[in-house]
Design goal:
heterodimer; A: alpha/beta; six-stranded mixed β-sheet; B: two-stranded antiparallel ribbon; globular
Chain lengths: 328, 505
């Protein structure tokens, strides 16, 4: 196939695609469904997208944020499941789509929804109080030496934070008492107030208390350091945090942030949202947000997305099984 | 006096025509959503949040916080006139406010409610202005044991100081605790009592229950008894307002006590509701004439309203300084702040002085303007009582249904509300108090979580509730209050009669 033909095919594909985008548009306000409480990372992200879409006129209809954080987010999943065929609802999903059905036997499967796009990956960082040990090694040593197990704060039970705690125990041999709080914000303040010794919050959840010098990041649970090099505190940037592997604790976990439509929507409707969120990822609001919250940029859609989801699902399932969190 | 200078600067930021107009608009909208049961502050603020995206942060937050103040004022209106609490923390206001309206003293009760709201907020704002840094470090002292101790204190003060037979209070509270367990259990990550229904996943929403228990059951009772609203159109004039104000100094102890309780509980999440109940119970406890409470005593309106508003206002402090919302509305405001690129946290006070002090200044202005606005509209609200029952009742039912639906956009909640209406009717008939039920429903989950987290942290050792001065004194106080009737009896026996010599009130 010559260059010319390939270009022609691309052009033809583009021509075909454009009418499809123009073909369908929401006629009602679009609900962006958040599977977490007010002020959490998902809510913040939803509000950022709401503002980005409104300020840049990306859609004629307004977008409303609808908080469905009941039952640790299961409310949002069941809500999406029961909205089959309704193209005016988008879910902003994270790892709960794999974990909740396993731990709480919620009758939900993400394959019943329509995938739109993966828009970011979220990091996890091991934090301790700024008055606590300064390195991972010291921290682990102190945790082992402590008479009562160190308290590890986190969001929810049998979820990503809890799983990370279990793997941290396995790799280091230290014991932790895991305290499940309702939100990452709560876990952050409880660490500042010395009610827990550590937490595994996302960067966004501990950002402000870190800037205020109240907590210290020990290591990031990824195979490479966070890319952002702008100074966040007086002396440190996100890139200055070592990976846990560098520090001798090989635990890695990244969490997806992805958009889904309910099941049984038309390809035109799906295409509209793929296009919409692609445009969102090009706005200044989105880029600014990604850097501020130290999120890993990614944009996957179509087949790539499904493949990513399948692999991610398998990883999460094996982690949950190994941690003993799968309900019988 | 750095705070004073900053505050003056805040006023300078605010005093433009544009801001003042936004403030008025916010207040009127707020009163309106406050009056509709269930619609309330959180929904009002959530609906209007997108409108403010294009404004600058200071104007936006001024408008939104004025909706909040308006809703705080408005919540009292339906509690007093119809025995339907517009907001969760207005439940205690119905105890004496509604009997007053029935006796034809609606205007007096409304004036008392608005005035005490104003006083409570004012005390809290003064506290925020001058003690912000100290208070936020106090809030950080609260870990799971401390939270549990506070909830325990609230429950115990109910049993020990309640006016109803104690066994009935305990029955009512236990039922509330049982229903609070429905849904996801955060500590174990398992579902409880959902029986495979996806509607029950969310758990039982507290506001839905309140609307049914108080609103619908009241309509049922009225239909059975008389088909008319009891309550005569009161003659409302400046004289009534001034009369209430003239009597204010007499109640300074109650006002002071409630403000203190309110500010203290406001900085712990969920505090406003607990504060209003505690303010009421303590006012009754220390009254010379506790029997007259619940029968239309003006002090019974002052006490819960002052406490609720002191805590509603001070709830904004942990939100700004720590990023923990103290109430539902504060949680939505928190979302707003982030959209405008302001991240609540310890540095907000340093990095965004204009915004923070503009907001604090708007608390002063918003409250003053709000008080004038609601007082001038008292006649309008009180005149609702003159409308025939046949016309008002369907409107109340519809507004209850809309309110119950709007909380979570769920049709199921309307059925739930009607169910609670019947439960409320039966409870009223057999003399089981509703307030302990609602209190247990709203605080039950949090108390349980706090208790279990304390136990995980301490390895199952109950001594954790006496592990430091703060938690130890709250827990001890709770136990003293629980056994207060016994202790009171013992004291009386040794000749320390408490009632013979009322301390200061």
């Amino acid at each position: 196939m010559g260059h010319r033909t390939r270009a022609a095919i691309t052009l033809a594909a583009a021509l075909c695609a454009t009418p499809a985008f123009a073909g369908w548009e929401p006629t009602k306000p679009v609900e962006i469904v958040v599977a977490a409480g007010a002020g959490g990372a998902s809510d913040q992200m939803a509000r950022m997208m709401q503002a980005a879409i409104q300020k840049n006129n990306l859609m004629k209809q307004p977008m409303v944020v609808s908080l469905k954080g009941g039952a640790s987010g299961a409310e949002a999943l069941m809500y999406m499941k029961s909205s089959e065929g309704d193209p005016n609802k988008v879910l902003i999903a994270y790892s709960l789509i794999y974990m909740l059905p396993l731990s709480a036997k919620i009758p939900f499967n993400w394959r019943e929804l329509t995938p739109v796009s993966v828009i970011a990956l979220d990091q996890f960082v091991l934090w301790d109080n700024s008055a606590g040990p300064k390195t991972v090694k010291d921290f682990v040593a102190a945790a082992k030496a402590a008479s009562a197990p160190f308290k590890m704060g986190g969001t929810g039970s049998k979820r990503e934070d809890h799983v990370l705690t279990v793997f941290l125990e396995q790799k280091t041999g230290a014991k932790f008492s895991y305290l499940p709080y309702k939100s990452g914000g709560e876990a952050a303040t409880q660490l500042v107030g010395n009610h827990t010794e550590s937490n595994v919050n996302n960067p966004s959840e501990n950002l402000e208390v870190w800037r205020a010098g109240q907590v210290r990041p020990l290591c990031v649970f990824d195979k490479e350091r966070i890319a952002y090099t702008t100074k966040v505190t007086d002396t440190q940037s996100w890139a200055d945090i070592p990976t846990c592997k560098e520090e001798g604790v090989d635990v890695q976990y990244l969490m997806l942030r992805a958009m889904f439509l309910p099941g049984k929507v038309t390809p035109e409707q799906q295409a509209f949202y793929v296009d919409l969120f692609q445009k969102v990822t090009q706005t200044a609001e989105y880029k600014d947000y990604m850097e501020k919250q130290a999120l890993k940029p990614i944009f996957l859609t179509g087949k790539d997305m499904v493949q990513f989801l399948e692999e991610d699902d398998a990883v999460n399932k094996s982690l949950m099984t190994e941690a003993g969190f799968v309900a019988k | 006096m750095e705070a004073l200078g900053l505050l003056l600067h805040g006023f300078a930021v605010l005093l433009t025509w544009k801001t003042l107009v936004l403030m008025m608009v916010g207040l009127v909208l707020g009163i309106f959503v406050g009056v509709l049961p269930g619609l309330g502050g959180p929904n009002g603020v959530a609906i209007l949040l997108p409108l403010t995206f294009t404004m600058d942060p200071t104007s936006a937050i001024v408008m939104l916080s004025c909706i909040y103040w308006g809703a705080l004022f408005g919540g009292a209106i339906t509690s007093i006139l119809f025995n339907i609490p517009g907001e969760a923390w207005s439940v205690a206001t119905t105890f004496d406010g509604y009997p007053m309206a029935q006796q034809g003293r609606a205007a007096e009760a409304l004036t008392a409610a608005f005035t005490s709201s104003f006083i409570g907020s004012l005390v809290a704002v003064l506290l925020i202005t001058f003690l912000a840094p100290m208070i936020s470090s106090f809030a950080l002292k609260f870990g799971p044991p401390e939270f549990f101790a506070v909830y325990l204190l609230t429950f115990c003060s109910f049993v020990g100081l309640g006016r109803e037979a104690r066994h009935k209070t305990v029955i009512s509270m236990s039922l509330g605790l049982l229903l609070a367990g429905v849904g996801m259990d955060t500590v174990s990550g398992q579902l409880r009592m959902t029986f495979g229904s996806s509607e029950l996943l969310r758990g039982i929403n507290f506001l839905v229950a309140v609307i049914g228990l108080f609103g619908i059951s009241e309509i049922l009772l009225t239909m059975e008894e008389r088909l008319a609203l009891r309550g005569h159109a009161a003659s409302i004039s400046l004289r009534v307002v001034l009369g209430v104000w003239k009597d204010l100094p007499k109640y300074w102890v109650t006002l002071f006590r409630s403000s203190f309780i309110g500010c203290w509980l406001g900085i712990t999440p969920g505090g406003a509701i607990a504060a209003s109940f505690m303010g009421y119970n303590l006012a009754k406890r220390f009254s010379k004439d506790p029997e007259s409470f619940g029968k239309g005593r003006i002090e019974g309106v002052f006490a819960p309203e002052t406490a609720a508003h002191a805590s509603g206002t001070s709830a904004l402090l942990p939100m700004l300084a720590l990023g923990i919302p103290g109430s539902g509305t504060a949680a939505i405001l928190l979302g707003g702040l982030m959209v405008w690129g302001l991240n609540p946290g310890p540095l907000l006070f340093v990095e965004h002085k204009d915004f923070v002090w503009g907001l604090i200044a708007s608390m002063y202005l918003g409250n003053v303007v709000g008080l004038v606005l609601v007082l001038t509209t008292v006649p309008v609200f009180a005149s609702i009582l003159r409308v025939p029952f046949a016309a008002v009742a369907p409107m109340i039912v519809v507004s209850c249904a809309i309110g119950a639906y709007a909380i979570q956009n769920a049709m199921f909640d309307i059925w739930l509300m009607l169910g609670f209406g019947v439960v409320g009717y039966v409870f009223k008939k057999i003399g089981i108090p509703l307030a302990p039920f609602t209190l247990a429903l709203v605080l039950g989950n949090r108390a349980e979580d706090a208790f279990r987290l304390s136990m995980i942290g301490s390895g199952g050792d109950l001594k954790v509730f006496w592990s430091n001065g703060l938690v130890g004194s709250i827990t001890t106080l709770a136990i003293v209050l629980l056994f207060w009737p016994l202790i009171d009896g013992l004291l009386a026996r040794v000749g320390w009669t408490q009632r013979a010599k009322p301390a200061a009130g």
